[in-house]
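Reply to dn_fold:

You asked what the input looked like. This is it:
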Amino acid sequence: MTSTPDTRSTTLTDFDRDGYVIFRNVIDADLIAEASDHVAWLEQQHPDVRPEQLGHVYLRDDPFWVRLISDDRLVDIASQFVGDDVALFASHYISKPPFTGQQVLWHQDSAFWPLEPMEVVTLWLAVDHSTPENGCVRLIPGSHTLDTAALRERTDVENVLGAEIAVDVDESQAVDMVLAPGDVEVHHPKIVHGSNANTSPNRRCGLTIRYIPTSTRITADEQPYPSAFLLRGNPGVNTYQPRPTFDPARHFPFRDAN
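and this is what came back:
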């Protein structure tokens, strides 16, 4: 008898070794098309906000966004890394427009986040094709084993974060995360990563989704945190936002709105 390979075990082994792993064809084309339209709608609603900055402050009362980050296919992936009790910590569209999309300087997410302990995983959902030409995510494999380094401010070049890791990064070790719409790249909070500017004629949009086990405490002053939503299981140590109710006069219209 031939045994079925334990793909979950292989995935976690790869993640433990490299600090990232890719899942292909996670989200169907129809939902990705809605996400793409959602980004365009958000840009119309917030014309003074750069499309790389469409974070949870603009999404906290957005039923489509909550529907997307709650999708069972995404939460099932997250649960492989954080366990059965899953909450959302934060989420952010980073949409780099053609020719002018800003770079993301090398950094570790753990340097920014008010979480205790730093048990969290990022799912990077590709809304567009993501390639070296349009500024795909780049990772340094294995760098998640390093301590969280200090940050230094960088305002001399246009960039999304306004800061970078305060240590030298060997870019020759970087791996490009080439993704198709609907693919998901998962990475560790301490992995060193960034992305180049988009100088191509093609938009590069992805949704970052930060899932935590409900045993991880959000230590920010504002409680409940604007993007804290309980998604599955026991609520644990945090308080959460109520799920928004769809209002056609205020919200992005989508297939499962009612």
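The chain has one domain: 17-232.
Hope that clears it up.
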